[in-house]
TrEMBL record:
GO biological process: carbohydrate metabolic process
Protein's name according to its UniProt entry: Mannan endo-1,6-alpha-mannosidase
Signal peptide boundaries: 1-24
Keyword Signal: yes
UniProt-listed InterPro entries: 6-hairpin_glycosidase_sf (IPR008928), Glyco_hydro_76 (IPR005198), MUG_Protein (IPR053169)
Keywords from the UniProt entry: Signal
């Protein structure tokens, strides 16, 4: 049944005009319920969610922020998470990193200087996730410290610029030569987000975002059918490794933000091409997105699809396509109807039936789809 919460009204009573708002209310209630369930895993001592690792924790926090931006009634929960995680989160950092050589503070007048190095863990992609999460927290709170932290994290990534492939881009981590997609997509997205939020350094961030995108497109990350593979071989050729959903996602949000900061006729068409190729590869006949590792994804793989949908929603808002709206609402509806256990928790297979493992990572990833559905419902 499509509208169980409103079943008593009966379809004849619900005017066509009302249907849009009924769908929106329903989407909101579902997302709110699912946030409540997610908070059952939040650990005030660790600042992240039990059963969900370090960078996945950043992704969870991003989801909470995205919902708070759409639904003021969860703002209190979101503010609590941000401030608690800001204070205690670094205790969960698995490999406090040496990659940040100096403490970066943008404004020495601040009473609480931000030590970004506490958030670095010797994996540049993990650093990027935390930068995006703090930007999302800044967006809903306008708390300058969060933005400053993201800037500090980005500065440490700038220090890592320059690989053996064309002399640009970032390697995966300080001790590896592997040049992978996600690290570079994150660098693009963080730079582009900062360009739209730090007016006095806008050009600096635009320059880095452009530099990354120009380098990225000159490399072999994008495969023959337009999807993005995991990374490059030592000789800088495409390594043909798994087309993970998050690699089709982060780049979309990055290009949307870059196009906003420094419009260019090529950015959104590039994003649309990747999004369509990704949907062709990853969606089933009912427009529900899958990961190649299903149903037995390793812990990180359980997080990816939500990230794809989170970024597809950004593209939908900048460059609407009926296909994107359909994918987002189909995923959200399918999760709710087919991939939910009696505790209200969501699993990895959004098409259902729900299979183990069910944890904060599978749940928060699915919540991303519910949040995106709130954003696009009624459009
Ligand atoms: C910032 O954190 C790093 C890593 O824990 C530490 O080595 C450094 O002393 C800290 N700097 C400041 C100014 O607190
Ligand atoms: C596109 O190529 C990737 C391999 O790079 C493959 O996994 C995927 O299935 C292809 N998509 C389609 C629609 O054939």
């Amino acid at each position: 049944m499509l509208f169980p919460r409103h079943g008593l009204l009966g379809p004849s009573v619900v005017s066509l005009l009302l249907i849009g708002s009924v769908v929106a209310d329903d989407a909101r209630t579902r997302a709110r319920d699912a946030l409540h369930t997610l908070q059952g895993w939040y650990n005030p001592q660790s600042g992240i969610w039990d059963t969900c690792g370090w960078w996945d924790g950043a992704s969870c926090m991003n989801t909470v922020a995205d919902l708070a931006a759409l639904d003021p009634s969860v703002m209190e929960t979101a503010r609590y998470v941000f401030s608690n995680t800001f204070n205690v989160g670094p205790v969960s950092n698995p490999h406090p990193g040496p990659e940040h050589k100096t403490v970066y503070t943008r404004d020495n007048q601040l009473s609480t200087p931000v030590n970004a190095s506490l958030w670095l863990d010797q994996a540049y992609d993990d650093d990027g996730w935390w930068a995006l999460a703090w930007i999302a927290a800044y967006d809903v709170t306008k708390e300058g410290t969060y933005l400053e932290l993201a800037e500090g994290i980005f500065e440490s990534l700038v220090n890592a610029w320059g690989t053996n492939c064309g002399g640009g881009g970032l390697p995966w981590n300080p001790t590896s030569r592997y040049v992978n997609s996600i690290t570079n997509e994150l660098f693009l997205s963080v730079a582009a987000h900062l360009a739209n939020r730090v007016p006095d350094r806008k050009q600096y961030y635009v320059n880095w975002a452009r530099k990354e995108w120009d380098w990225f497109t000159a490399q072999a990350f994008i495969g023959e059918n337009g999807t993005i593979n995991d990374g490059l071989l030592d000789n800088c050729q495409n390594n043909g490794a798994t087309v993970w959903s998050y690699n089709q996602g982060v780049v979309l949000g990055g290009l949307v933000e870059l196009n906003k900061a420094a419009p260019n006729d090529a950015y959104l068409p590039s994003a649309n091409k990747i999004a369509k190729a990704a949907i062709e590869t990853l969606a089933d006949a009912n427009n529900v997105i899958h990961e190649f590792c299903e149903p037995q994804c390793l812990p990180d793989g359980t997080q990816f699809k939500g990230i794809f949908i989170r970024n597809l929603r950004m593209l939908q808002e900048a460059s609407p396509h009926d296909l994107y709206r359909k994918v987002i609402s189909s995923c959200a509806n399918s999760i709710w109807n087919n991939d939910r256990n009696e505790k209200g928790q969501f699993g990895i297979n959004w098409a259902g039936p729900i299979v183990a493992v069910v944890d904060a990572s599978t749940h928060s990833s699915a919540l991303d789809a519910l949040v995106a559905a709130v954003a696009v419902s009624g459009t």
